[in-house]
Amino acid sequence: MNVDDEAAVLSRVPTFAKCDPARLKLLAFTSRALRFAPGEVIIRAGEPSDSTLLILEGTVEFVGETTGGEFIINTAGAHQMIGEMGVIMNVPRTLMVRARDDVRVLRISAQVFLKLLSENPEVALDMMRTLCERLHATTQRLTKTQAALVDAGAAARGTP
Predict the structure, then answer these.
(1) Could you report the per-residue pLDDT of 73-85, keeping only the tens digit for each?
(2) What is the pLDDT of residues 82-120, one digit of tens each?
(3) Domain ranges of the chain
(4) Cα distance between residue 136 and residue 153, in whole Å
(5) Which helix (H) or strand (E) covers residue 104, if one does?
């Protein structure tokens, strides 16, 4: 895929839809397209957050680990960003991300991504909305999980 094709794909991604074509071409030119096979690790927990990844095709899964083994926390698909929280917060990766099926991503360096946010208020606002939606969904899942744990504990103790 050439720069013009990648810029055209970026223009269909809601986060980048309001960017001018020249900026999208520059973003495509300064980014790197990568492919991952099913089961391949894309991001490892603890790695430096040196880039964000825009999923162009396929589905990824966010994987947590406990002493009992791995579990899937969430999934993401086409036109979703991954790794942006670590870049924005300037902290190492917190989770493993792996390909669920054949995945194609566009790797955007941290420097380019942060510059894009700082120079494009519409993109930054869309990114804030996306992150807020994720936080809200996570809070709801945690609330349900906490209630289920309380109920399970009460049932184990034989209390109503």
Answers:
(1) 999 999 999 999 9
(2) 999 999 999 999 999 999 999 999 999 999 999 999 998
(3) 3-157
(4) 26
(5) strand 103-109
